[in-house]
């Protein structure tokens, strides 16, 4: 008897989650998150990341961290670009023209869903790489140039993009857009078509994404803590040195604050996505075609504005905490005239960082 009651309770709970979010409520949630919040933030994010890419390219590639930040900006730009696509598809005018919401959901899942996840993982990998690089700059300054070179940094960035995009191939193979009959509307329309082995193929991509997410998350946390400890020890040692190290200490302090801020923002804003990916792995019906599709779509629509913030906020961090970035930004847009001494200093630094003058890379790669 108890077994029957337990089974009934589980079934009731399952039915509750299945109907918890109605189609009408889901529509309101998706419009607010996809179109208003995510669309607005992502549109600005595309502009800001383009600015990031241009500025880091102008600052030169002799500094390996410039390459890392440029790669991070490219990945973040891909994230917000996919979110702009979502905001366009879920615009009420587009939905009204299409008239069938499943068509919008199917197209967005194939065209923007997995690429969005891929760009997010690349951004995470580059954040982890930057954190590790900074840790080595502080803890092993005499060896860092031999460990992290310009060619290795470029190879790392290209490999991240290639491997992570290759990881979503099984998911693309498992599903496609096709014509299907809808008994509700009593008509045929575009929808998702899944292969017989779709579940196993999607599990490959999901598992790889989870491994990357957790690995990147752990690396960022561990090396951020290690960076802080190493920096504190080095600061204590430098306090006994000459006064000439004061300016260097100030730059190092800014550098640590910037890396910590980028890492903390990444960690906090990545948690919802990690949780959602775990739910997809351990709850089979938590997907776009499962019983809990409304909860799936609603939750992911909430994660998208968070992802947009994560891929946009670095612009403000660079602008506030990097002197070279800020001076280049102001010079590019003629927002403020640099003082003569500051302008000459920036020009000398840019010339020094150009490929023609990269015989000796600096230990502290990115001057703050």
From TrEMBL:
SUPFAM superfamilies on file: Family A G protein-coupled receptor-like (SSF81321)
Major localization listed first in the record, in broad terms: membrane
Domain G-protein coupled receptors family 1 profile: 45-318
Any matching Pfam family: 7tm_1
Keyword Membrane: yes
Matches recorded under PANTHER family: G-PROTEIN COUPLED RECEPTOR, PYROKININ-1 RECEPTOR
Name of protein: Uncharacterized protein LOC106068181
